Amino acid sequence: GQQVMQIPQYQHVQEGEDFTTYCNSSTTLSNIQWYKQRPGGHPVFLIQLVKSGEVKKQKRLTFQFGEAKKNSSLHITATQTTDVGTYFCAAYDMEYGNKLVFGAGTILRVKS
Amino acid sequence: DVKVTQSSRYLVKRTGEKVFLECVQDMDHENMFWYRQDPGLGLRLIYFSYDVKMKEKGDIPEGYSVSREKKERFSLILESASTNQTSMYLCASSSQGEGTEAFFGQGTRLTVV
C-alpha cells in the first residue's frame, strides 16, 4: 500500500530559529495533508495541498507540494514555544480512496 | 462543535482479556479510522470503515477486529489482549470523498499487564 516517509524524526531548535519537516512518497499522491499534535493532545488538521507545485502559507508556516506530487514540506519561520509538538503529513491511498495513511511524524522541541 | 468521542481516556487490562474500544462521532461522517500511536512509529492504521458494516484492513490489523453497526459508532476489539498491544489508540472520522480532513478523538491509552 501507499506509504509516506517523513524526516527528521526529531528536531530541537532554539526559539527564533527556523524548522522544516519533509514528507516523501514513492508514488504520486493525489493530495497531502498536514496535522499538528500538541503534547498530550490529538492530531489536528492544519492544511491540505492538492496541486502540483502548490505553496500555501499560514502566518509563519509555509507548506509546499512538489512538482511531481511525491514530496511535501512544512517550514516554520522563527519558531516560538507554541510551535512545540509533533507534525504529521498524511495522504489518502490512491488505490483505496478512503484509506488515510500518516507519516511517522516529526517531533519539534523549542528551547527558549 | 464537531466531536469524536472515545469511551475511555485510560484503560488497564490483563493479558488475554477481550477489550473493546468505542468511538462515536457526531458529524455524520462516512469514514472512520482506528490508529495506534507508538514513539518513533507515528500513526499506524489498524482498520478503517467507509460505510456501515463495511470494514477494511489497514497496515497492522493482526490481533484486532472492528465493528460498525451504526454510522456514528466504530468499535475496535482486541480479541485477546497482549502486552505488545499496549499503546495509544486514536479514532478518527472524515466525510466521504478523497482529501477530506480527519477529526480525531482524544485517544485511549491502553496498558496491557
SSE map:
The complex is a heterodimer of chains A (112) and B (113).
Chain A: E1 4-7, E2 10-14, E3 19-25, E4 32-37, E5 44-49, E6 55-58, E7 61-65, E8 71-76, E9 85-92, E10 100-102, E11 106-111
Parallel strand pairs in A: 2-11
Antiparallel strand pairs in A: 1-3, 3-8, 4-5, 4-9, 6-7, 7-8, 9-10, 9-11
Chain B: E1 4-6, E2 10-13, E3 19-25, E4 31-38, E5 42-49, E6 56-57, E7 64-70, E8 73-78, E9 87-94, E10 103-104, E11 108-112
Parallel strand pairs in B: 2-11
Antiparallel strand pairs in B: 1-3, 3-8, 4-5, 4-9, 5-6, 7-8, 9-10, 9-11
Summarize the structure.
The complex is a heterodimer of chains A (112) and B (113). By secondary structure, chain A is mainly β.
List keywords for this structure.
heterodimer, A: 112 residues, mainly beta, six-stranded mixed sheet, 11 strands, 0% helix, 54% strand, B: 113 residues, four-stranded antiparallel sheet, globular
What does this structure look like?
The complex is a heterodimer of chains A (112) and B (113). Chain A is built from no helices and 11 strands. Chain A starts with a strand and ends with a strand. Chain A has strands spanning 4-7, 10-14, 19-25, 32-37, 44-49, 55-58, 61-65, 71-76, 85-92, 100-102, 106-111. In chain A, the strands form 2 sheets. In chain A, strands 2, 4, 5, 9, 10 and 11 form a 6-stranded mixed beta sheet that branches. In chain A, strands 1-3-8-7-6 form a 5-stranded antiparallel beta sheet, with no helix packed on it. The model of chain A has no long low-confidence stretch (mean pLDDT 94). With 112 residues, chain A is mainly beta. In chain B, a hairpin with a 6-residue loop joins strand 5 (42-49) and strand 6. Chain B has strands at 4-6, 10-13, 19-25, 31-38, 42-49, 56-57, 64-70, 73-78, 87-94, 103-104, 108-112. The N and C termini of chain B lie far apart (36 Å). Chain B contains no helices and 11 strands. With 113 residues, chain B is mostly beta strands. Helix content of chain B is 0%, strand content 53%. Chain B is globular, with a radius of gyration of 13 Å. In chain B, strands 2, 4, 5, 6, 9, 10 and 11 form a 7-stranded mixed beta sheet that branches. The relative contact order of chain B is 0.34.
